[in-house]
Design a protein that fits this description.
Layout lengths: L1 H6 L1 H7 L3 E3 H6 L4 H9 L4 E4 L2 E3 L7 H12 L4 E2 L1 H7 L11 E6 L10 E6 L16 H11 L3 H13 L5 H8 L8 H12 L5 H11 L8 E6 L2 E7 L4 E5 L7 H16 L3 E5 L1 H6 L1 H12 L17 H9 L1
Helix pairs in contact: 6-7, 7-8, 7-9, 8-10, 8-11, 9-10, 11-14
């Protein structure tokens, strides 16, 4: 109402990216016939019931975001992936559905391309910005709560923390107020890995599936050396592990990796390089290779097999004898 009184409906429509709601038009004194006229003439279109776009061109992603808020009502706020995108925590995806959250006592019918959630703690989880959205920690935990897998939950946590706009400790603090959150019991070690320096899902999976499950020493994450960062460095063992889930089809990236490996060799450091398939499908084999290099410095390292068939068992027997 304040923008309407100060600037009028035309300025409000402009500020809202050419999106306006029926409730706003009525508040500005428009009659029902006046609202129907541009719709009948096809100069306006309905994005959702009672929410209109006031031009004839394509409806952009930003317009869809604001239309979702206006459709869901005055107490709606962006949440989940939408809030995380708008807060700069994750990369935007225009193909993704719009997520909004409303108070528990309200009901809004779902629409195509729009997901509506209800939350009894709605007010306590809002950021002090406009348009309304969840706080960074709550947006991350919203996504975790609907993530189909623990891997997807871990990937979102890692990406959000790497953005520098939310801290792992903050997420951990908010986790205490979500006792029924999906994947909750498995999140603490993931967040601990992020605190330790893991920047991606692949790094989290390496720490869990290669290191911890096989009793290997914990490497130092993101060591800075020669103006670059090493994914995992085993201090005192002269071993680096580089993790990359991409296929390097770009020559410049390939040569940068080779140059980094060569400089490590000049420092008399060995480098093992693993991709997504290695860590997710051959974690035991990777653990064996890492152990073999670590034993060059400490022959008495005793690993822990992750299963009776784990190939690292043979190396444990050799150590024991």
């Amino acid at each position: 109402m304040q923008p309407l009184r100060e600037k009028g409906i035309d300025a409000l429509i402009h500020d809202q990216g050419q999106i306006v709601s029926r409730a706003q038009l009525l508040a500005a004194g428009w009659s029902e016939p006046r609202i129907r006229r541009p719709l009948r003439n096809r100069r306006w279109r309905a994005v959702h019931p009672g929410v209109y776009v006031t031009h004839t061109g394509p409806i952009g992603y930003g317009e869809r975001l604001l239309a979702a808020l206006l459709y869901a009502g005055p107490e709606a706020a962006w949440s989940h992936y939408t809030a995380a995108e708008q807060l700069g925590l994750i990369k935007p995806d225009p193909e993704r559905r719009v997520y909004v959250t409303i108070p528990e006592h309200r009901k809004v019918l779902p629409r195509a391309g729009l997901v509506v959630h209800r939350d009894e703690h709605w007010a306590a989880r809002l950021a002090a910005v406009a348009p309304p959205r969840r706080t960074p920690t709550e947006a991350v935990l919203d996504i975790v709560g609907i993530a189909p897998s623990l891997d997807e939950a871990a990937a979102v946590i890692a990406e959000a923390c790497q953005s520098g706009r939310v801290g792992a400790e903050d997420i951990l603090g908010s986790l205490a107020h979500r006792p029924r959150l999906r994947h909750r019991s498995s999140l603490r070690p993931i967040i601990a890995d992020v605190v330790a320096g893991s920047h991606s899902l692949l790094e989290i999976r390496y720490a869990r599936d290669v290191e911890r499950r096989h009793g290997l020493p914990r490497g130092h994450r993101q060591r800075s050396v020669d103006h670059e960062f090493t994914d995992v460095h085993y201090t005192g063992f002269s071993l680096n592990v580089e993790l990359d889930g991409r296929l390097h089809l770009v020559p410049q990236q390939r040569w940068r990796d080779l140059d980094r490996d060569n400089r490590a060799t000049l420092r008399t450091e060995a480098t093992l390089r693993y991709g997504w398939f290695d860590v997710t499908n051959r974690a035991c084999d990777a653990a064996v290779q890492v152990l073999q290099v670590l034993r060059r410095t400490n022959p008495f390292l005793d690993p822990t097999p992750c299963s009776p068939s784990c190939p690292i068992t043979a190396f444990r027997n050799i150590s024991a004898s």
